[in-house]
Structure formats: structure tokens, C-alpha cells
Amino acid sequence: MSECTHDCSSCGASCSSRQNVIEKEKLNDRSSVKKVIVEVLLCDESELFPETTFTGDLGADSLDVVDIVSCVEEEFGIKIPIISPVSTVGDVINLIP
After folding, report:
1. Which positions ≥6 away from 88 have C-beta within 8 Å?
2. How far is residue 55's CA from residue 57's CA, in Å, rounded to a whole number?
3. pLDDT tens per residue across span 27-51
4. SS3 call for 43
5. I need a labelling partner for 75 at 20 to 30 A (CA). Which of 17, 32, 41, 90 fits?
6. Within 13 Å and on the Cβ side, how many CA atoms surround 18?
7. Phi/psi of residue 53, each to 5°?
8. Please, what's the b/e burial string for 46-81 (b: 16 or more CB within 10 A of its CB; e: otherwise)?
9. pLDDT band at 82; cut points 50, 70, 90
10. 94, 29 in Cβ contact below 8 A?
């Protein structure tokens, strides 16, 4: 598996409301996940919606999906359980705590 090499920045905005911070973090998370997918699959970000499937819509194989999960783990400093079902863009986004 190749090592993830994309560049990302975390949300540095300071908001007075915790809800605003959470919403901005979620938007940043979705954007970061999409950037990972674009870099791994060499697809266009405009093709990525929560319901977009990796194999059916984007033509990915199982190794591509493993690479995406690996890069997301690295990007967010998390460990995704191997039994987590991952077949859509939304599935990956939902794995981010």
C-alpha cells in the first residue's frame, strides 16, 4: 500500500459557539475525506456525494478502498476497525469521530 501524501489543514477558526466549531470541523472533515478520495482514485471531487459508491460509481477495487481507509486513518490520527463496512463516500465520512 502506498503512503498517503496529500496536504491538509485543520480548522483554525475560533468561534464563540461550540456548535459553529463542530459544524466547521465536520465540513473540514468531509472536505479532507474527499481530498483523500480524489488523490487515491484520481477522480473529480464533483463526482463525490455521500451516496457515491466506490466500486459501482467510481470504478475502485477493494485495494483502492483499503488505501482510502488507510489514508483517512493517517489524516485524522484514528484507527478504523477492519470490520467497518465501507462502500460509499458517506461510509468513510461517518467513520470520523
Report:
1. 50, 51, 52, 53, 54
2. 6
3. 577 889 999 999 999 999 999 999 9
4. coil
5. 17
6. 0
7. -90, 145
8. eebeeebebeeebebeeebbebbbbbbeebbeeeee
9. confident
10. no
Query: Is residue 9 very low, low, confident or very high in pLDDT (cuts 50, 70, 90)?
Result: very low
Of the chain, the end-to-end C-alpha distance in Å amounts to 24
According to the model, what pLDDT value does residue 84 have?
79
User: Is pTM beyond 0.85 here?
Assistant: no
* pLDDT, mean of residues 12-30: 56
Please check whether residue 71 is in contact with residue 51, taking contact to mean a CB–CB distance below 8 angstroms.
no
Catalytic site residues? 61
Euclidean distance between CA atoms 11 and 21, whole angstroms:
8
Please tell me whether residue 36 adopts helix, strand or coil conformation: helix
